[in-house]
Design goal:
globular; Hypothetical protein af1432; Nucleotidyltransferase, domain 5; alpha/beta; 512 residues; five-stranded mixed sheet; seven-stranded mixed sheet; 3 domains
Length: 512
C-alpha cells in the first residue's frame, strides 16, 4: 500500500482552515502534516447577528475556497481525498443549504455540516492522540475537555477515562459578545455576564458529574494554544501544560487589553485577537469550578480528529473504544433519570446475544449493534416520568438528549426503537417514525423486534435467564435458556411481544 495525500478543510465561525497530510502506509493511524493554511472569514458575525450568511461573506468564502482549490491541485490531491466540514455558524444559518449549493457549484467542494456531537467526537479523537500515554492521570481521574468557538462551546465530561456526558452549548465568543453588549459594553459587565452564565452552566453539568471532582482540565482551540506557548511548558510534540495559577494569571493579565493591544503585545492577527479575551475568560471561569492543578492544551484541532477518523479501520481498537464511550454516555443518561440499571444492562446483553446469533437474518453492522445496545440500556428510561406509556416518554427523553458520538439521525432511530419496544407496531400516524428514511425505518423494525424479545426474557426484572442459544427449525426459532427453571413470566412475555419479530424475520419463537 502506497502513501496518499488527503486534505481537511474546516469552515468555522471566524475563518476557513486547511490541513494537508500524507497518510503513511506503515501502520494504521499514522500521518504526516505537509501543509496548513488559514484565512479569516466573519461568518459567525453574520449568522449570530442576522441569522443568515450575507452575500458578501458568501462571495468571500467562495474566493478563499477557490484559492485552496488551486493549492490542492498543486498537491495533486484527488477530490475523494478532500474532506470539507462546517461547524456552528453553518449549523445556525437559515440559508445554509443555499450556501452549500453555491459552494459546490462554484468550487466543486461538497461540504458536510457537522453537528455539535460530531465536533465532540472528532475533538475527543484528537485529544486522545495528543495526550498519548504521556499524561496517565487523564485516564485515571475525572476530566473535562472544553473548546470554545465563535458560535458554540463543546464540553465532554469523563469519569476515570469513561465518558459521562458530551454537550454542545450555545456559548460562543461571538454570541457572548453580542448578548453582553445588549446590557453594557464594559469589560466589567462582560466579566459579570460570563460569571453568571458559567455558574448556571456549571450547575447543570454538575448534575452529571461534580465539577469540583475534576482533576484534569483539557482546553482545546487556537486561543488555548496561544496561552500554552506564552505561559506553558511542553508535554510532548502535540501537547503542552500550563499550571493552574499561571493560566489564571495570564487570563487576568490580558482581560483589560483592547483588541489593538492584543495584536501589538501578543503578535497575533486582528481576527484572532477579537475573541481571545472572552475565550480565555470562559476557560478561566470553568477552570475555577474545578480542582484541576494544571491546564492540558492539545496542539490539535478537529481537523486532526478528521485525519484520525480517516485512518482508523472499522474494526480497529480505537473504533471499539469509541463505541464503548458511546455506551458509557448512554448509561449515564439512564442514571440521570434513575433507570433500572440492572434490568437495562441485562436486556442489553441479551440483545447482543440475539444480534450476533441472527447476523445472517438482520444484515446490520457493528455500529447498528452499538445503537441497539444503547436502545436496550435506555428502553425503560421513560419510567422516570410515568409507568403508563413509558415507551412514549422514553422516546421523548432520548430524542431530546445527547449521547456522545451519536448523530441526531441516530438518536432518532434509538428513540423510535424505544418507542416500539412495547405496544403496537408503527402506524401511518406515527410522525416520528414515518419521518425517518426508508433505511432507518427498516433498522428500527429490526432493532425493536430484537429488543422486544430480549425484554420479554427479563419480564420479571430478575435477570433469571443468564444465557441463551438459538436453534433454527424451519420457520421456528428455538431459544434455549439457561439459569432459570420456571419460565412462566418469560413465556407470557414472549406471547405478548414476539409478534413483531415474527413479522420482521419470519420466525415463530419457541422458548425452552
Amino acid at each position: 500500500m502506497e502513501s496518499r495525500l488527503v486534505a481537511v478543510l474546516e469552515i468555522g465561525s471566524t475563518g476557513i482552515r486547511l490541513l494537508v497530510a500524507e497518510i503513511l502506509p506503515l501502520a494504521e493511524g499514522l500521518w504526516r502534516v505537509v501543509d496548513q493554511a488559514g484565512k479569516p472569514v466573519a461568518l459567525g458575525q453574520d449568522v449570530f447577528t442576522s441569522g443568515e450568511i450575507s452575500r458578501e461573506s458568501l462571495l468571500e468564502c467562495i474566493s478563499v475556497l477557490q484559492i485552496y482549490r488551486e493549492l490542492l491541485r498543486g498537491w495533486n490531491i484527488r477530490d475523494e481525498d478532500v474532506h470539507i466540514i462546517a461547524t456552528s455558524a453553518l449549523r445556525a444559518a437559515r440559508n445554509r443549504d443555499v450556501f452549500a449549493d453555491r459552494v459546490r457549484h462554484e468550487t466543486g467542494f461538497a461540504l458536510s455540516i457537522v453537528e455539535g456531537v460530531e465536533e465532540n467526537r472528532l475533538m475527543y479523537l484528537a485529544v486522545r492522540f495528543a495526550l498519548k500515554q504521556d499524561f496517565p492521570v487523564f485516564w485515571r481521574a475525572n476530566s473535562m475537555i472544553i473548546e470554545i468557538g465563535g458560535g458554540s462551546t463543546e464540553i465532554m465530561l469523563l469519569r476515570r477515562g469513561t465518558m459521562v456526558a458530551a454537550h454542545s452549548l450555545k456559548l460562543g465568543t461571538i454570541l457572548i459578545d453580542q448578548q453582553s453588549r445588549l446590557g453594557a459594553g464594559s469589560g466589567r459587565f462582560h466579566e459579570r455576564f460570563l460569571n453568571e452564565n458559567i455558574r448556571n452552566t456549571a450547575g447543570f453539568l454538575s448534575a452529571e458529574m461534580d465539577l469540583a471532582h475534576v482533576r484534569t482540565f483539557v482546553v482545546a482551540g487556537s486561543d488555548a494554544r496561544l496561552a500554552s506557548y506564552l505561559a506553558g511548558t511542553e508535554l510532548n510534540e502535540n501537547c503542552r501544560i500550563i499550571e493552574r495559577k499561571s493560566f489564571i494569571s495570564f487570563a487576568e493579565q490580558i482581560k483589560n487589553y483592547s483588541v489593538e493591544e492584543c495584536v501589538r503585545k501578543l503578535q497575533i492577527s486582528y481576527s484572532h485577537a477579537e475573541g481571545l479575551i472572552l475565550s480565555l475568560m470562559v476557560y478561566k471561569f470553568f477552570l475555577e469550578q474545578t480542582h484541576a492543578a494544571q491546564v492540558v492544551v492539545p496542539l490539535v484541532s478537529i481537523r486532526e480528529g478528521c485525519l484520525i477518523d480517516l485512518t482508523m479501520g472499522v474494526d480497529s481498537e480505537l473504533q471499539e473504544e469509541f463505541f464503548s464511550q458511546s455506551i458509557a454516555s448512554a448509561m449515564n443518561l439512564g442514571r440521570r433519570y434513575h433507570f433500572d440499571e440492572a434490568h437495562g444492562r441485562h436486556v442489553a446483553n441479551l440483545c447482543i446475544l440475539l444480534f450476533d446469533a441472527l447476523a445472517r437474518e438482520h444484515g446490520m453492522d457493528r455500529r447498528d449493534r452499538m445503537m441497539l445496545e444503547a436502545a436496550a440500556i435506555l428502553h425503560d428510561i421513560g419510567m422516570y416520568i410515568k409507568g403508563s406509556g413509558h415507551h412514549k416518554h422514553g422516546q421523548y427523553i432520548v430524542a431530546n438528549s445527547e449521547i456522545f458520538g451519536l448523530h441526531r439521525e441516530e438518536l432518532d432511530v434509538i428513540a423510535n426503537v424505544i418507542r416500539y419496544h412495547r405496544g403496537g407496531p408503527p402506524s401511518e400516524g406515527d410522525i416520528e417514525y414515518i419521518s425517518l428514511s426508508r433505511e432507518d425505518r427498516i433498522r428500527v423494525l429490526k432493532m425493536a423486534a430484537i429488543l422486544r424479545v430480549a425484554d420479554a426474557l427479563d419480564r420479571g426484572h430478575t435477570q433469571g435467564v443468564k444465557q441463551i442459544s438459538l436453534e433454527r427449525k424451519g420457520e421456528t426459532l428455538m431459544i434455549h435458556t439457561e439459569g432459570v427453571r420456571d419460565l412462566t413470566l418469560e413465556l407470557i412475555g414472549i406471547e405478548q411481544k414476539a409478534d413483531l419479530f415474527q413479522d420482521v424475520f419470519g420466525y415463530k419463537i419457541v422458548l425452552t
